[in-house]
Amino acid sequence: MQVFTEQDFLVSNWSGGKTIQLYVYPAFANYTDRNFKLRISIAHVEQEASDFTSLPGFHRKLMVLDGEIQIFHEGHHSKRLRQFESDDFDGAWTTRSIGKCVDFNVMTTPELNCELSVLNLNVGQVTLLETGANTSLFLYVKKGSILIKSQGDNSEVIHNQLLKLDFVHNEELQITSVGKSDLVLTMIQPMV
């Protein structure tokens, strides 16, 4: 169980605003060199119209955290994304967006499978989450504060922190919301 805080995140600028890298694997990997297998980030889209960076060899999942955008994948599909709505697409596609937002991004190489979802919890709500074997779970606290209980370990995760848990076997994770909380869950597994 690892908790990453703002001091661990890497902030940089891109053509449409700024991006905050929450996690990269392997740890020595670098976005510019494209030598990562997994990258989780938050982008602040500050321009009304933005062109996405071409990322051949990567699959992307994107979820709007705040704001709203219309996303266009040339020759494929387009979609309007409001808060907590998501889209997935090939990083090689020519992609642009209209609108301003803050979005959550997961980029993976083809050997990894990614599931992205949101969990909205009320004060004191307890949720049990089942995880599969050989799964890495990333839990980003967009709002609120939660208590995590897994395999006898307890941890508190607060607003703007990222929790990483690795599971070898099927496990059950207990999440208790201290306040009203919005969580972004990312499950990563090797492709079979």
Describe this entry's structure for a reader.
The strands form 4 sheets. The protein has a 6-stranded antiparallel β-sheet, with no helix packed on it. Strands 1-17-14-19-12 form a 5-stranded antiparallel β-sheet, with no helix packed on it. The chain has a 4-stranded antiparallel β-sheet with strand order 5-10-7-8, with no helix packed on it. It has 192 residues and is mainly β. The chain is globular and about 45 Å long. The protein has strands spanning 2-4, 10-14, 17-25, 38-45, 49-51, 59-67, 69-73, 78-81, 86-90, 95-98, 101-108, 112-121, 126-131, 135-143, 145-150, 153-158, 162-167, 171-177, 181-190.
Which labels suit this protein?
single chain; 192 residues; mainly beta; six-stranded antiparallel β-sheet; five-stranded antiparallel β-sheet; 19 strands
Summarize the structure in short:
The chain has no helices and 19 strands.
The geometry reads as globular
Query: Helical content, roughly?
Result: under 10%
| Biggest sheet character | 6 strands, antiparallel
Distance between the termini: 25 Å
Proportion of strand residues:
over 45%
Structural class: mainly beta
List the helices and strands in order: EEEEEEEEEEEEEEEEEEE
Query: How would you state the average pLDDT, rounded?
Result: 93
Give the strand tally: 19
